[in-house]
């Protein structure tokens, strides 16, 4: 007896949902995709605006004029680096001291789980050098960071030169209220991670980093700089960070306002900004930017040192100088002035950046979509799962009670008897669940653990062994349903697959919901591909079609597809073989990112989505 | 012979009459002047200047208050009669590229901080409670003299407030507010305790006119920089310092006051005309219904200066000793 609702009305509504289930699901899915595509268009995408009152307008006078000094430093750095082959630590220390900073170094070392083919490193050890400019009249409670990552493939010497020249200029000013740390890291992001872990006194990734001898207070904001040429035609900004975290939108707004003030050309993802949002051109380009950002955010890799700062809730950006064939070029003074302006305004901050959005999607450098407007897209997709699960539950209830939907609909007053307590039996559900989860666990642990064994028995390098083991276990999961039934007694009645599908749908919905909250792009991408296949997977009907659909929407296939889409959107399309090579490289990079920086894509897919997908595969091949 | 004697007598009488009439005229003139000496009714001046906002980007509020402080001191009110409340220290803020200065004009033309500024309530001492205690005089006995408003029933008080405000309230220190009703009640307490003769209240905040709507005590004149629903805007952006230096209304009031000297005869109507909408963008307002005198008879220096009524007479009074009395004495 319902007290607050009418049970008869509720049952009638439930039966309506059951009858209209398929059209509703299709409608909901279509609405989700359409909503997502509509995000690039003006009412849903808005112009950015500065929310932090303390940063105000760009009302500062930039006085940086150390272009020559920067170039000299850059030349010296490049020469010393070529001579020593690694980061010239002694030279950097001397240079920073001559500029007037407090200089410290930090050593770190890391043995990667398997050799990194792209960066050609395995046992990594290096030294970070950093100098602290103390605020003249303030206690060292807060700090700002300017960092330049130096790796073996990108020397970044002009960035180091500009860093030193800026340090010299900043040292001569008396208006700093926060300390400024000038950090030069070795081995790119590994060095940055080592420094950050030592600074915050944590050990998240198994890096052996020496403790820091000099410290400056809580970091409020950081800017990473990558410059490889004396002149640039534009400054590119990267915002997506580790696990899809993003810096506060105000930092991006700050960068953009200083670009506009200095007349500097600023780009996002390397493309010029669309000007015309009234007609169709702007939004279409915005859609391209949006899709690229979703793909980059979903991959969860840090696209620059800023990505690692975001884990500690330090707002950070990476600025890359691009030197293309455009005619108008800017020299280091222009870049230096933009940075000076940004740091001067960040100096005015009294609290951490918190007024603007932390979760957003960018359709252009000056246009964004806020979380309140993009979440419904994921909501609609998850609604499909909810509808399907609800329909299944009702169907099961009605069939257990022995009453078909037609008879029940005909006699609305007749209350069907309560179904017997779960006739399906949880025992038959437990086996597929456990087996799928075990395969997922194997997918997570075995590749790295058994790389040596595989390398001994097969003529492949360790990295290739890892990737091939991954693929092998993944494919082995496909063979599972045909073997599970030999292990488990098939006592389950014919409708047992419904219970399994119900559990699988709920499991998928939970996972997608949680992931969509943390990393909307990953959640949406996986939902858009897995939801239709999951909703359609049934043992009856055209099994081969469903099987092909399910395979095509499995997480690995989604990864492959999104790689192709990513290159397509960057206007550098891939051929099939190139795509496959890139796919293998992406797999090994994903595993490495997890061990080196704590990226969560690999464990989430291996321990979460892959077992869930296997459950649907089991449902499809239910006997 | 008798005729000339008669004529002499008449001449003397006439002269005496003329002298007498002149004398009486002179006396009545002195009486008039003496009456005028006490016409405005006040014998001393006080000023309570309050800046309620802290943080570096509210530099302009401190500059506003210091500009009025500077004018008021220049026109004669001594530090002992000024209660200056500044909620934050801009001059020594680490972000100030010119330490120990607070400028009110860009290009650093005018440093209103100066060498002899005396801040009575500083930093976190500027709270609503302290402000109301200063006004009403309910102060703990341990409070030093410089922090008290020791006014009496012949004091003219200038109260200037600036900061961030809204419709019916003024924000103190980003953590509390004072409402217009509280302020009106505080002024009524002052009136009941005979703590002022006349009061001039100036406020430079957004929607400032809402703060004087609720006054109900006599002898209060109020000015505000903007009406309800309007924002008061800032002025003087300075890229070298990186903030706005002043608010518009107080900037133009400062310019007006720079031309006032202790002998000026400008009256309140001139002050009402300062900063029309074309310069201020907001519409300044004023309220005079509670004030007993006509604003055109109220001098600016009645509130902004401490003018000693000194009358320089050109008449000489000769003192002559009576020699007989002197001889008797000895």
Automatic annotation (TrEMBL), chain A:
Its pathway, per UniProt, is: Glycolipid biosynthesis; glycosylphosphatidylinositol-anchor biosynthesis
Q: How does the protein's chain sit in the membrane according to the entry?
A: Multi-pass membrane protein
The record's Gene Ontology cellular component field reads: centrosome; cytosol; GPI-anchor transamidase complex; mitochondrion
- Keywords in UniProt for this one? Disulfide bond, Endoplasmic reticulum, Glycoprotein, GPI-anchor biosynthesis, Membrane, Transmembrane, Transmembrane helix
Under the heading Pfam families, the entry gives: Gaa1
Where does it localize?
A: Endoplasmic reticulum membrane
One GO term (biological process) = attachment of GPI anchor to protein
Asked if the Swiss-Prot or TrEMBL record annotates the protein with the keyword Transport, the reply is no
From which source organism is this entry?
Loxodonta africana (African elephant)
Instruction: Kindly indicate whether the keyword Disulfide bond belongs to this entry.
Output: yes
Give the protein's biological function. Answer: Component of the glycosylphosphatidylinositol-anchor (GPI-anchor) transamidase (GPI-T) complex that catalyzes the formation of the linkage between a proprotein and a GPI-anchor and participates in GPI anchored protein biosynthesis. Binds GPI-anchor.
Q: Describe the subunit structure.
A: Heteropentamer. Part of the GPI-anchor transamidase complex, consisting of PIGK, PIGT, PIGS, PIGU and GAA1. Interacts with PIGK.
Q: What protein does this entry describe?
A: GPI-anchor transamidase component GPAA1
- List, in alphabetical order, the Gene Ontology terms for molecular function in this entry: GPI anchor binding
Q: Which residues cross the membrane?
A: 20-41, 357-387, 424-446, 458-480, 500-533, 545-566, 595-620
Query: Where is this protein chiefly located?
Result: endoplasmic reticulum
Automatic annotation (TrEMBL), chain B:
Which gene holds the coding sequence for this protein? PIGK
Q: How does it sit in the membrane?
A: Single-pass type I membrane protein
Record: active site: 164, 206 (nucleophile)
Kindly name one Pfam family recorded for this protein. Peptidase_C13
Q: Which family does it belong to?
A: Belongs to the peptidase C13 family.
Q: Does the keyword Membrane apply?
A: no
Provide the protein's localization.
Endoplasmic reticulum membrane
| Official protein name in the record | GPI-anchor transamidase
Subunit info? Heteropentamer. Part of the GPI-anchor transamidase complex, consisting of PIGK, PIGT, PIGS, PIGU and GAA1. Interacts with GPAA1. Interacts with PIGT; this interaction, via a disulfide link, stabilizes the expression of GAA1 and PIGK and links them to PIGS.
Query: Which pathway is this protein engaged in?
Result: Glycolipid biosynthesis; glycosylphosphatidylinositol-anchor biosynthesis
Alphabetic keyword roster:
GPI-anchor biosynthesis, Signal
Query: GO biological process annotations for this chain's record?
Result: attachment of GPI anchor to protein; GPI anchor biosynthetic process; proteolysis
| Superkingdom classification of source | Eukaryota
């Amino acid at each position: 007896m319902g007290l607050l609702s009418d049970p008869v009305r509720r049952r009638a509504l439930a039966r309506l949902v059951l009858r209209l289930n398929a059209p509703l699901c299709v409608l909901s899915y279509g609405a989700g995709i359409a909503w997502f595509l509509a995000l690039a268009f003006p009412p849903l995408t808005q112009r950015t605006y500065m929310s932090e009152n303390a940063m105000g307008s760009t009302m500062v006078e930039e006085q940086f004029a150390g272009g020559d000094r920067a170039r000299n430093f850059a030349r010296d750095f490049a020469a010393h680096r070529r001579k020593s082959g690694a980061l010239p630590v002694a030279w950097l220390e001397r240079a920073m001291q001559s500029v007037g900073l407090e200089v410290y170094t930090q050593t770190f070392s890391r043995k990667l789980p398997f050799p990194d083919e792209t960066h050609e490193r395995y046992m990594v050890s290096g030294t970070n050098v950093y100098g602290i400019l103390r605020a003249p009249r303030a206690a060292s409670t807060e700090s700002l960071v300017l960092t330049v990552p130096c790796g073996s493939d990108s020397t970044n010497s002009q960035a180091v030169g500009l860093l030193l020249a800026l340090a010299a200029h900043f040292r001569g000013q008396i208006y700093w209220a926060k300390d400024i740390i000038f950090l030069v890291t070795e081995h790119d992001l590994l060095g940055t991670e080592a420094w950050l872990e030592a600074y915050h006194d944590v050990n998240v990734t198994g890096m052996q980093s020496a403790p820091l001898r000099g410290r400056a207070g809580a970091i409020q904001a950081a800017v990473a700089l990558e410059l490889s040429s004396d002149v640039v035609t534009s400054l590119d900004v990267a915002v997506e960070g580790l696990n899809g975290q993003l810096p506060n939108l105000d930092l991006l707004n700050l960068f953009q306002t200083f670009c506009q003030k200095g007349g500097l050309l600023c780009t996002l993802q390397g493309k010029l900004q669309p000007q015309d949002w009234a007609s169709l051109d702007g939004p279409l380009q915005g859609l391209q930017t949006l899709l690229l950002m979703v793909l980059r955010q979903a991959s969860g890799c840090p696209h620059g040192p800023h990505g690692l700062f975001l884990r500690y809730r330090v707002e950070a950006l990476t600025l890359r100088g691009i030197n293309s064939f455009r005619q108008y070029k800017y020299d280091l003074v222009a870049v230096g002035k933009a940075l000076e302006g940004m740091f001067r305004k960040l100096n005015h901050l009294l609290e951490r950046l918190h007024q603007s959005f932390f979760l957003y999607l960018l359709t252009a450098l000056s246009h964004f979509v806020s979380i309140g407007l993009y979440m419904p897209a994921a909501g609609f997709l998850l609604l499909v799962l909810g509808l399907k699960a609800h329909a299944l539950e009702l169907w099961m209830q009605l069939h257990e009670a022995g009453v078909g939907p037609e008879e029940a609909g005909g006699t609305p007053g007749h209350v069907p008897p309560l179904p017997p307590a779960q006739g399906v039996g949880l025992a038959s559900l437990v086996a597929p669940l456990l087996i799928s989860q075990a395969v997922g666990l194997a997918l997570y642990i075995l590749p790295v653990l058994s790389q040596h064994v595989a390398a001994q028995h097969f003529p492949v390098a360790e990295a290739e062994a890892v990737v091939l083991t991954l693929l092998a276990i993944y494919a082995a999961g496909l063979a599972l349903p045909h073997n599970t039934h030999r292990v488990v007694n098939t006592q389950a009645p014919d409708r047992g697959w419904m219970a399994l599908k119900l559990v699988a749908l709920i499991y998928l919905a939970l996972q997608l919901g949680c992931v969509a909250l943390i990393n909307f792009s990953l959640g949406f991408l996986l939902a858009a591909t897995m939801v239709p296949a999951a909703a359609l997977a049934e043992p009856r009907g055209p099994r081969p079609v469903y099987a092909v659909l399910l395979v095509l929407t499995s997480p690995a296939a989604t990864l492959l597809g999104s790689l192709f889409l990513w290159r397509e959107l960057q206007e550098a399309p891939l051929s099939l073989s190139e795509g496959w090579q890139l796919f293998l490289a992406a797999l090994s990079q994903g595993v490495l990112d997890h061990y080196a920086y704590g990226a969560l894509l690999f464990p989430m897919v291996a321990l979460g989505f892959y077992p869930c997908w296997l459950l649907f595969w089991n449902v499809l091949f239910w006997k | 012979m008798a005729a000339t004697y008669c004529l002499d007598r008449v001449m003397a009488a006439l002269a005496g009459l003329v002298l007498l009439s002149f004398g009486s005229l002179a006396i009545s003139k002195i009486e008039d002047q003496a009456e005028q000496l006490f016409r405005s009714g006040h014998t001393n001046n006080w000023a309570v200047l309050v800046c309620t906002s802290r943080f570096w980007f509210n530099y302009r509020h401190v500059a506003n208050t210091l500009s009025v402080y500077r004018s008021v001191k220049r026109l004669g009110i001594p530090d002992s009669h000024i209660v200056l409340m500044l909620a934050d220290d801009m001059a020594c803020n680490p972000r100030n590229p010119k330490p120990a200065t607070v400028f009110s004009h860009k290009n650093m033309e005018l440093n209103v901080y100066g060498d002899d500024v005396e801040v009575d309530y500083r930093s976190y001492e500027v709270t609503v409670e302290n402000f109301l205690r200063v006004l009403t005089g309910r102060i703990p006995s341990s409070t030093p003299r410089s922090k008290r408003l020791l006014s009496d029933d012949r004091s003219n008080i200038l109260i200037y407030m600036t900061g961030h405000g809204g419709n019916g309230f003024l924000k103190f220190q980003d953590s509390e507010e004072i409402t217009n009703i509280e302020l009106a009640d505080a002024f009524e307490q002052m009136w009941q305790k005979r703590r002022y003769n006349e009061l001039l209240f100036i406020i430079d905040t957004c929607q400032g006119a809402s703060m004087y709507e609720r006054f109900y005590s006599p002898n209060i004149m109020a000015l505000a920089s903007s009406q309800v629903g309007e924002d008061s805007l800032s002025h003087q952006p300075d890229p070298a310092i990186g903030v706005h230096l002043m608010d518009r209304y107080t900037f133009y009031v400062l310019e007006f006051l720079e031309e006032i000297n202790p002998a000026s005869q400008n009256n309140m109507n001139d002050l009402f005309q300062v900063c029309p909408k074309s310069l201020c963008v907001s519409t300044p307002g004023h309220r005079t219904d509670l004030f007993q005198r006509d604003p055109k008879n109220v001098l600016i220096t009645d509130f902004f200066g401490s003018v000693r009524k000194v009358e320089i007479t050109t008449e000489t009074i000769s003192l002559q000793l009576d020699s007989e009395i002197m001889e008797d004495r000895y």
